[in-house]
Specification:
- The mean pLDDT is 96.
- The N and C termini lie far apart (36 Å).
- The chain has nine helices and 13 strands.
- Helix 3 links the parallel strand 2 and strand 3.
- By secondary structure, the chain is of the alpha/beta class.
């Protein structure tokens, strides 16, 4: 279904935003739009909403299955502004998810279980949000794939990830059950990455509630939403496998000619399977077996 504007979508989308899960896909360029949408449709989202410029094309088979909203994602505030508008329009308790094109959600056992099943279990554990790690993907051969994107020959970093305590700016003390996570291409090429964009944690799955606001750093104004687990045991986490950083570094004139390859001794071919991410510790099954 196509809408004339974001405002028109919000007016007409009450049935969509009643329970979810609803995926919001923000399209920044024309790279892997269709594969991103197909992947999230296969995850089992009740609705997939794609926010993208009118000039970009969609294959007919995908176009028939998604809700297309004209939107310009450029600008630091554009995505948080749209997500917050959807939060305000959604019924409290509706599960929402957001990502960009050339990003692919993986969660434990996603090959055989739907995202709805996972979120039902997560809700039973009294969790209203889920931490996701943005795992950088990159093409192994930049001569063959100068935009750093290749689904068939994708690589990821198998180590080099770390966490630091997240301090409350008001008190200077570490916040309970909150960490800032780093690693991947953003860590190895940090001289080309603004400091505020180096973290790889994103609260990408969450329940709408009154007054909830997504902030530009991918955290929320409700601090419990920003925690990686509840106080009594580990919870589920997921991963968003993303070409976004690598393609940005190869598109940016300041870094494009400085990078001949993203591969290093800790690169590994990406297997497009949740088992690899679980084995590498890049997501957590918690108590879900």
């Amino acid at each position: 279904m196509m809408y004339s504007s974001l405002q028109a979508f919000l007016k007409e989308s009450s049935p969509l935003l009643a329970k979810g899960p609803v995926a919001l896909i923000f399209v920044e360029d024309e790279v892997e739009i269709a594969t991103t949408l197909r992947h999230h449709l296969q995850c089992g989202f009740d609705s997939v909403v794609v926010l993208m410029p009118d000039a970009f094309d969609l294959p007919q088979d995908v176009n028939a299955k998604v809700h297309r909203v004209p939107y310009d994602c450029r600008g630091a505030e554009a995505v948080p502004r749209a997500v917050n508008a959807v939060i305000a329009a959604a019924q409290p308790g509706c599960w929402l998810y957001y990502c960009y094109n050339a990003e692919y959600l993986f969660y434990p056992f996603c090959e055989t279980r739907s995202v709805g099943e996972m979120l039902a279990f997560h809700s039973e554990e009294r969790r209203d949000a889920m931490l996701t790690y943005v795992v950088d993907l990159y093409a192994g051969d930049l001569e063959a794939h100068p935009n750093a994107v290749s689904l068939e020959a994708a690589y990821l970093d198998k180590s080099g990830y770390y966490a630091q305590a997240r301090k409350d700016p008001a008190t200077g003390h570490p916040r309970e059950r909150q960490l800032d996570f780093f690693g991947g291409v953003r860590w190895r090429f940090e001289e080309h990455i603004p400091a505020q964009s180096r973290k790889i944690d994103r609260i990408a799955l969450f329940k709408a509630r009154a007054g909830l606001q997504l902030l530009p750093d991918h955290t929320f104004n409700e601090q419990e939403y920003n925690t990686y687990a509840c106080p009594w045991h580990h919870n589920l986490t997921a991963a968003i496998c993303s070409f976004r950083t690598a393609k940005a570094l190869k598109r940016n004139p300041g870094s494009a000619f400085e990078i001949d390859t993203f591969r290093w001794h800790n690169s590994a071919p990406f297997e497009w399977h949740s088992r690899q991410l679980l084995d590498l510790g890049l997501m957590e099954p918690g108590q879900w077996f």
